[in-house]
Design goal:
With about 375 residues, the chain is mainly β. The protein has helices at about 10-20, 290-295; strands spanning about 50, 60, 75-85, 85-95, 100-105, 115-120, 125-130, 145-150, 155, 165-175, 180-185, 195-200, 205-210, 215, 225-230, 235-240, 250, 260-265, 275-280, 310-315, 320, 330-335, 340-345, 350-355, 360-365, 375. The chain has one domain: TolB, C-terminal domain (Neuraminidase).
Length: about 375
C-alpha cells in the first residue's frame, strides 16, 4: 500500500488522500546505500510558471548491474527522494539498463514534491504531477507540468488550475499519446477524488468519473481501469470503463479473502486481466521476499503502513491470484516494452519480475524511502 506523502509539503492531508490507501505520515530516512542516486545542486525557487530544469551537465551515477545476466535494454524513468543535510528533494531520473547509469532529468527545489511521472509513448516528452514550494507560483498545489525527457527545457505548467485549492496527481499517459489522465481533488472541500482527462498538449481538462482514482489505460487505449472507495466502509472497488469514462462496470473480486484496500490497477498486455496491489491476508505470514533480494532488515512492517503484494484477477471478475509475497510498501508498476517483465517501485526500491511473479531481481535498492512511480521505456 502507499503511505501518506512525506512532510515536504504544507498540504500533507491532501498528499495522503492522493496517495490512495493512506495510513500514516512517515518521514523517510536519509539514504545510506552506496547505490543511492547522487543529487545535483538544488535548483533555484522559480519565479514564473516555468520550473528550472537540471543543470546542462547533470551528475551521472553508475550503480552495480545486478541484472546484467538478464541482458535488459531500455530505460527506467523513476522518482526518488534525495537528502542533503536537512533538506529534501525529489528527483525524476533515468536509468540506462544497458549501462547502469542514472542521470537526473528533473529535481524539485527543497520542499517541492513530485507524485508521479508519465512518459509519452514516443519517449520524447514527460508530464509530472508536481507541487512547487509554497514560495513559488502555485506553491503547495500539485498539478501537471510538461518537459522533454532529456531535461533540456524547463518544466512548463500544462494548464492553469481552475481553483487555488485544486490538486492534480497520479498522471498517466494514454498509450496512443493523445490524452493524459489524472486524479483530481480540491482540498478546500475534501471529498472523493475524481478522474479527469486532458488532450495533450493544449486540451481543456474534462471530468470523466466521480469517486474514482488511480486511472490506467489498456494497451489499445480503449479501456480505463480505476479504483473507487466506499466512504462508509473504507472498501475499495475495482472498475473498468470505456476510455471516456462511459460504460463503467465493477470487476467483482470474489473468494475467501477480499482485501478492503485495492491500489494502482493496470491491465495485462492482452487486456484480459487486471493486476493490482492489495494487502496480504491477515492469517498469512509475510515471506519477506524483498529481504532475499535487498538484504535482511530493509523491510519494515511496523511503521504503520500496510504491506502489500501484486495480485491478478480476470477482467470478468473472480478470485484474485496472489503473484508475490513481498510485504512491500507503496507498490507501483508497469510492463517492460516487450511485456516480458513487470517493473515495480516501492519505498524499498525498484525491482523487476516476470508477469507471474517469478524471477524477482532488485534494480535500484535505494530511492529514498518515498512512494513514487516507475516506467520502462525503450
Amino acid at each position: 500500500m502507499r503511505p501518506k506523502t512525506p512532510p515536504l509539503l504544507v498540504s500533507l492531508a491532501i498528499g495522503s488522500l492522493l496517495a490512495g490507501c493512506s495510513i500514516n505520515i512517515s518521514t523517510p530516512v536519509p539514504p545510506t546505500s552506496a547505490a543511492a542516486v547522487t543529487p545535483q545542486q538544488p535548483v533555484a525557487v522559480p519565479t514564473s510558471q516555468q520550473i528550472a530544469a537540471p543543470s546542462p551537465q547533470p551528475m551521472v551515477t553508475t550503480i552495480p548491474m545486478t541484472w546484467s545476466s538478464l541482458h535488459l535494454g531500455g530505460r527506467l524513468i523513476f522518482t526518488a527522494g534525495i537528502y542533503i543535510g536537512n533538506d529534501g528533494y525529489i528527483d525524476v531520473s533515468s536509468l540506462d539498463l544497458a549501462t547502469g547509469a542514472i542521470e537526473p532529468i528533473f529535481q524539485t527545489p527543497d520542499a517541492g514534491w513530485v507524485d508521479s511521472a508519465a512518459v509519452s509513448p514516443d519517449g520524447t516528452q514527460m508530464v509530472i504531477s508536481y507541487a512547487p514550494p509554497v514560495s513559488a507560483p502555485h506553491g503547495g498545489q500539485e498539478t501537471l507540468y510538461a518537459l522533454p525527457t532529456d531535461g533540456s527545457k524547463p518544466a512548463q505548467l500544462l494548464f492553469p488550475p481552475a481553483d487555488p485549492k485544486d490538486q492534480n496527481a497520479q498522471v498517466v499517459w494514454a498509450p496512443d499519446g493523445k490524452n493524459l489522465y489524472f486524479a483530481h481533488m480540491n482540498y478546500h472541500s475534501p471529498g472523493p477524488l475524481s478522474i479527469w482527462r486532458v488532450a495533450y498538449p493544449d486540451g481543456a481538462p474534462q471530468k470523466l468519473l466521480d469517486n474514482a482514482y488511480w486511472p490506467r489505460l489498456s494497451d489499445d487505449a480503449t479501456r480505463l481501469t480505476y479504483v473507487t472507495l466506499d466512504p462508509q466502509t473504507g472498501q475499495n472497488y475495482l472498475y473498468v470503463a470505456n476510455a471516456d469514462g462511459t460504460g463503467a462496470l465493477e470487476v467483482p473480486v470474489q473468494g475467501p479473502y477480499i482485501s478492503n484496500v485495492i491500489d494502482v490497477p493496470m491491465f495485462s498486455p492482452d487486456g484480459q486481466s487486471i493486476l493490482f496491489s492489495a494487502q496480504d491476508p491477515p492469517q498469512s505470514s509475510i515471506l519477506r521476499g524483498l529481504d532475499s533480494i535487498l538484504g535482511a532488515g530493509l523491510v519494515h512492517l511496523s511503521d504503520g503502513s500496510i504491506p502489500s503484494d501484486w495480485w491478478s484477477v480476470p477482467i470478468t471478475g473472480g478470485a484474485p491470484k496472489q503473484l508475490t509475497h513481498l510485504g512491500a510498501l507503496s507498490l507501483y508498476g508497469g510492463y517492460s516494452p516487450d511485456k516480458q517483465y513487470i517493473v515495480s517501485s516501492s519505498v524499498n526500491g525498484i525491482f523487476i519480475m516476470r508477469p507471474d511473479g517469478s524471477s524477482l531481481t532488485m534494480i535500484v535498492p535505494d530511492i529514498g524511502g518515498i512512494p513514487g512511480t516507475v516506467q520502462w521505456i525503450p
